[in-house]
What we know:
Layout: H1 16-27, H2 34-45, H3 47-73, E1 76-77, H4 80-84, E2 88-97, H5 112-129, E3 135-141, E4 145-147, E5 154-156, E6 160-164, H6 169-178, H7 190-194, H8 196-199, E7 206-214, H9 218-221, H10 225-236, E8 240-245, E9 254-261, E10 272-280, E11 286-302, E12 309-326, E13 331-338, E14 344-352, E15 362-369, E16 373-379, H11 385-394, E17 404-406, H12 414-417, E18 425-429, H13 436-447, E19 451-455, H14 462-469, E20 480-485, E21 497-499, E22 523-527, H15 529-534, H16 541-549, E23 558-563, E24 568-575, E25 578-583, H17 599-613, E26 621-622, E27 626-631, E28 639-643, E29 649-654, E30 656-657, E31 663-669, E32 674-679, E33 689-695, H18 708-714, E34 721-724, E35 737-739, H19 741-762
Helix pairs in contact: 1-3, 3-19, 5-6, 11-17
Amino acid sequence: MFIHSLLLWGLPLVAVPLLIHLINLLRHRRIRWGAMEFLLAGFRRHRTWVRMKEMLLLLMRMLAVAMIVLAVAQPVLKNQLGGLLPGGSRAQHIVLLDDSYSMQDRLDGEGAYDTAKNVVLRLGEEAARQQTGFQNFTLLRFSQARPEADTTNIKLQPDMHGEPIDADFKERLEKVLSTLAVSDFADDPLAALTAVEELVPQAADEKRIVYLVTDFRKREWTENADVKKTLAELEKSGVLIKLIDCVDAEHPNLAITKLAPAEGTRAAGVPLVMNVEVTNYGTVAAKNVAVHTESGEWSVESGVASTEETSSLHTPHSTLHTLPEVPPGETARVPFIVKFPIAGMHTIHVKLDSDAVYADNQRTCVLDFPATEKVLIIDGDAKGGDGRAIMTALAPGGNVNTGITPSSIELPRFLSTNPLAAYRAIYLLNVGTLDPQALTALEEYIQNGGGVAVFVGPLTDPAAVLTWHRDGHGFFPVKLRQATDLPVDYLQKIPDLRVSKHPIFQIFSGNEAGLLATVNISKYYRLEDESLERLIPQDDHGKAAAQEETPSDFQDAQVIASLRNNDPLVLQRRFGDGRVAVFLTTAGPAWNNWPRGNPSYVVAMLQLQAWLAAPPASREWLVGDTLGVTLDPEEYLPQVRFISPTGEDFGVVQAVQQENGRFFAQGPRANTAGLYTAKLSPRGNQPDTLPLAVNVDPAEGNTLRVTGEELAQTMKEIPYEYYRAAEFYVSEDSVAGANISDLLLYVLAVWLILEMLLAASASYHIAPGNLHGGRNK
């Protein structure tokens, strides 16, 4: 066969020497004269031999033209001899098939993944048609080339590996492709490309062709330098690169990119605000976007077999919200309220109407709603005046359900004699000293995710507070200097309290002339200069946000409210996994008038409780993550069973004890989106179940494509072939065997030399030295 078979149309040029010969015969005229008759008599004796040489010369010239045409068309010898000739080779077809969920892309007609599978089938069909024993076929999906956890190794599970291509190959390939479906993964080509060398190592007598069958999204090609680098390395190692585009055009796509609760009390019977974010990955604005929300109780019901369990939503509550417009490339937020009358685990599910890609049109989260939030109030004064102010604000009683249950007001020694883990927040009010046991218990409580609010007062001892601070390594973020009066402002009438956009005060931000304008602070604690220098300013929201996202054991505090003289009044910091808020005035009316009938006090204390009790930012499980569960050894045995959304049971996992004493059970890799179930083993009780919501990576829903021109610019230094799926064909340079075009050129060179010698022998010319009377040959 020939690589450039169309050039074989040049074979009729073989007739050109014959045509020239015939034309030359027509140009001769017979003229009889005596001398010529004498010569012809001698010629007739050698005519047969001369005619034979002339015919042989004509044939050699015709064959020379034929060899030129064949050499340009580049013939390939595919039989057994082709693999043995110099330059002969085997062909390794390595197909890297993109099965990430963006390959669901479909507007009208065939989807991108179906198109990709048809391309692979065409490739296999053409390879099988060549009927050569020197071709092998490897098929690797992106989702089956996964980096192993905490290593640089890539775990490979090719669907076909080194499969010989023979007469039955098409049927085998068709059977494999029929079982493949687009995945929920968000994979770029990098891992699959990196795996090529391991999958098919380079061999001296093999030609390797990599077919990258994908949808060419911008984020993977123009923003991923590693992909380009890996392709360049493959090309340098002799790999022929063929890029096949399976999407006909760029289609608009909406994706739910986030679903999370807002700050608020999380308890049964108390409304909680949820936020869902919708991103428009298209190039035109999306109008009247319908957002469907559904919430319900989580439960596990036994199936027909005792080992089968399925998750379900009970008494679902569905609501439709409409976004008037989502501009191109931007994200819009929809807040909605959920309320669960029954305590327990609850699911919140959000979805959009169908569009080009459906996997990112839904998102699920699971939240635990306890019956109530228990809080502990510690008052250094046995009279409990500050404690009553906080208790009244958090739980006013009557028909008002805040979801918060304050304990009775306790003295500081309570901290060293009672477990604290059951409390969602602890309030330290006007406390003078803490014994070492109480201080240790309190710090452990905060580091494990608890929230503590500290209000100073007349009993507060700056010297004792130094033991809470411990040079910045304790839970208390600053050093106190002394209690100071704030002079009354009779002239300017500037509000005593200025607040930031922190969640505790966000509802009041920019409203100093409103409810907060009547708050008067008469006394507060000033800070040591050393602490003042380390504070994050109140208006430095950028740094504050970064601090919230990266908690550590030792961080500077942030000012979230200050006085009119610019001295700090309220501070916040992270300590371990927990939160600490410090008010440099009293919780009761001793040093301010805030608790005396001002509605803003109740609102601020409820917001404070919501911020303190907010659980640590839990990891959002995405498809491809390895699931895991942390257990309290006092409540659970170290055995966990994981079950997939489809009911697949992964068996019992033995949990491992960590440094903090808790158990951690590592589960399976999440291969699909949905609700996984972790069956726990409580001590002495029936097994509990913990739902784990797994969602797709929303970034994969970005359907913006890189055009062929942009791709050429990005990869201008790398030789490759680019095809649209509909135009893809198996070029002849991809076949196995030997390309004998070079051999033909060598033969042609020798052939032309022989032709010239024969031409000289068959022609008439004057022998050297006989120009004047010598004998002609």
